[in-house]
Amino acid sequence: MAPKASKGGKAAKQNEGPTEAEEPLQAVVFTDSHEGRFIPFTYSQPRCLLKLANTPLIEYTLEWLASVGVQEVFVHTAGNHSEQVEAYLEQSRWQDTFDSLRTITSAATSIGDAMRDLDEKGLMKGDFISVYGDLVANIDISAALSSHKTRRLKNKDAIMTMILREAGDYHRTKDQHNGQCFVIDSDTSRCIYYEQVRPRKSPRLDIPAEVMKDHVDIDMREDLIDCGIDICTPDSLAQWSDSFDWKRPRKDFVHGVLQDYETFGRTIHTHIVKEGYAARVNSLRAYDAVSKDVVSRWTYPYSPNMNMLAEQTYQLAKGNVYREDRVTLARSSSIGRRTVLGEGSSVGEGSVIINSVIGRRCVIGKRVRVENAYIWDDAHIGDDTVVETAIVANEVSIGKKCHVKRGALISQGVKVADGVVVEENMRLAKIERDDDDEVVQGVTDPKIVGEGGEGFLIELNEEEEEVYESLLAGVQDMDLVEDDDDDSDFDSDDEDGAEYEHEMVPAARSGSFASVASNESEEGAELKRKKADFVRTATDSVLDGMTKKQNEDNIQLELQSHRLAENAEDSWIREAVAAAFSRYIVALTENEEEPQKPKVAAEAAIMTNQRLITACVKEAGEQAEFLLFLQIDLLHRQQGGEVLLHAAYVLAIEDFVDSVGLQEWWDDSRSSRTQELQDLRDKAEGVVTSMVAAAAAESSEDEESGEDEDDEDEDEDDD
């Protein structure tokens, strides 16, 4: 749990409490983003209270705000679920954590309306943080706050700072249909142009010439994840009030302020974060991706066994399996890796649960298979049923011998009769909203849910059908359908993702809700998902073994078992081992009790676990690939350049890699694909140069020695 933000603890590490001369750090949390991407689940519950890894989304948001030193929080609610949000917060521990936690209810129909409401109420005493109630993050923003404050002292017209996460062009959770381009002045970090783009429709950017003329050095960035974290000023609220037709923070507010710069001189700046995790759960695709990241501990410390809620009792077991108290597992049941089991749930004989989240008080029958799925509280799955890559909401009952196929969404309270097949991408609900926006009971369709079932199919409209058809040629995953042409579609500010790891090439994520159009075959996409899953699992396994100082032979044995189970390729093994070494060495340098210098850490890690390297790195091409994987994983890590330098040196001096392997790595275009990768690689230039030169000199000496021997032989023959 987060400590009270004004009383030291982890919150104080990033932002100390206010002095007499300072205003308290405030934040506003918007719980309604005014779109319907989570329909039908949000018919009866606000998105911020939907559970991610069995914890309400807003808990992650408030935990992060406490960790960055926020003292006062205003939770802005609007729409149909305001009372639910207010009631939840009134009973939560957050009332005692923050100095002040207030719920503001309004009739806002957009973020713009909410901003104008805040301005009218005059609640913001100074600069404040603006976020959404579906944010999951662990990033440090102390530098961003400091830069923003310094900038404001020099220029009162600097009215906002956008915090963006660097992620690469092909981040696995980025929306490949709708992108964002930030044009940034390199010297001042000022955003001078912003545009939302649809690469599939128009790959061109039309940047006005006048934008470019006054800026010598600019960065055009399409590799940034925008999670809606902004440091705002009261002046920014005034701009919203002056422009009553602005609805969206990016497309309207940012675009409008930048467009009016010549007239009013107001500026918006950026702060780009290169480390840590940040994502909004603003789509089903993001829900799947962030859930998996939480379970896989990429969001540390925010993982299930942190037990954010007082009543939670999760314990972590091998393979990232989290289990609460009073879970009943039949002797012949099987619980696979990356699985969460909530309190009071039971799993019957012969059932298999893999890579899934099971809520509280769920009943999983006999011989059931649940894979890549999310089963919420109080659900019942009948015997011999298969649920794959789907969301089954609270109090849903699925009969015996059913098959819930990929991409299905089954909303709260739906009952599916025995023997029913829920086809791919179906959305089933029991309630709906009428013309007056009131929740009403829908008419059950026995053709969909079977005789005795309860629920109906939510039909797609023409526009959704068109989107659906356009994606059939690509990856047929969960979030195929976007909403109507309102704030929720391309005009929304929800183009974000989650921090994971830098990818050199586009790669599909193991998550099944991605709305990604692709020219690849379904088999190719599935292979990429399989690889991503294997590399992540194998990396975790190797890193865990090294951290616990297990015998390297035992670590290698477990790695081989993973390989055989998944029929993994040799390259996948090298990638996992390289990533594990990268993270272990960095961890040694960051050890709070006894931090090691990169040189010492690299030597200790490699020499103690050298058999892991020799088992998968032999030929020059394999050596080059291993170095490339090591380089990629170190790209955005603390002291990444120093670690790469000393790791390359140890690998070379101990003959794990030779001069040919070093040279192949150096010549590989992927090692310098971006300027950042090239800059990182250049840290090891001295090692490569000296080793290659030494090898060349040795080769030359051998040749001369050979020539001398030949001359001696000739002399002997002459004699």
UniProtKB/TrEMBL annotation:
<feature type="compositionally biased region" description="Low complexity">
    <location>
        <begin position="1"/>
        <end position="12"/>
    </location>
</feature>
<dbReference type="GO" id="GO:0005851">
    <property type="term" value="C:eukaryotic translation initiation factor 2B complex"/>
</dbReference>
<comment type="subunit">
    <text>Component of the translation initiation factor 2B (eIF2B) complex which is a heterodecamer of two sets of five different subunits: alpha, beta, gamma, delta and epsilon. Subunits alpha, beta and delta comprise a regulatory subcomplex and subunits epsilon and gamma comprise a catalytic subcomplex. Within the complex, the hexameric regulatory complex resides at the center, with the two heterodimeric catalytic subcomplexes bound on opposite sides.</text>
</comment>
<dbReference type="GO" id="GO:0031369">
    <property type="term" value="F:translation initiation factor binding"/>
</dbReference>
<dbReference type="InterPro" id="IPR051956">
    <property type="entry name" value="eIF2B_epsilon"/>
</dbReference>
<dbReference type="GO" id="GO:0005829">
    <property type="term" value="C:cytosol"/>
</dbReference>
<feature type="region of interest" description="Disordered">
    <location>
        <begin position="1"/>
        <end position="24"/>
    </location>
</feature>
<comment type="similarity">
    <text>Belongs to the eIF-2B gamma/epsilon subunits family.</text>
</comment>
<protein>
    <recommendedName>
        <fullName>Translation initiation factor eIF2B subunit epsilon</fullName>
    </recommendedName>
</protein>
<dbReference type="InterPro" id="IPR016024">
    <property type="entry name" value="ARM-type_fold"/>
</dbReference>
<feature type="compositionally biased region" description="Acidic residues">
    <location>
        <begin position="699"/>
        <end position="719"/>
    </location>
</feature>
<dbReference type="Pfam" id="PF25084">
    <property type="entry name" value="LbH_EIF2B"/>
</dbReference>
<dbReference type="InterPro" id="IPR056764">
    <property type="entry name" value="LbH_EIF2B3/5"/>
</dbReference>
<feature type="region of interest" description="Disordered">
    <location>
        <begin position="693"/>
        <end position="719"/>
    </location>
</feature>
<keyword id="KW-0396">Initiation factor</keyword>
<dbReference type="InterPro" id="IPR003307">
    <property type="entry name" value="W2_domain"/>
</dbReference>
<feature type="domain" description="W2">
    <location>
        <begin position="528"/>
        <end position="701"/>
    </location>
</feature>
<dbReference type="GO" id="GO:0005085">
    <property type="term" value="F:guanyl-nucleotide exchange factor activity"/>
</dbReference>
<dbReference type="InterPro" id="IPR029044">
    <property type="entry name" value="Nucleotide-diphossugar_trans"/>
</dbReference>
<dbReference type="InterPro" id="IPR035543">
    <property type="entry name" value="eIF-2B_epsilon_N"/>
</dbReference>
<dbReference type="GO" id="GO:0003743">
    <property type="term" value="F:translation initiation factor activity"/>
</dbReference>
<keyword id="KW-0648">Protein biosynthesis</keyword>
<dbReference type="InterPro" id="IPR044123">
    <property type="entry name" value="W2_eIF2B_epsilon"/>
</dbReference>
<keyword id="KW-0963">Cytoplasm</keyword>
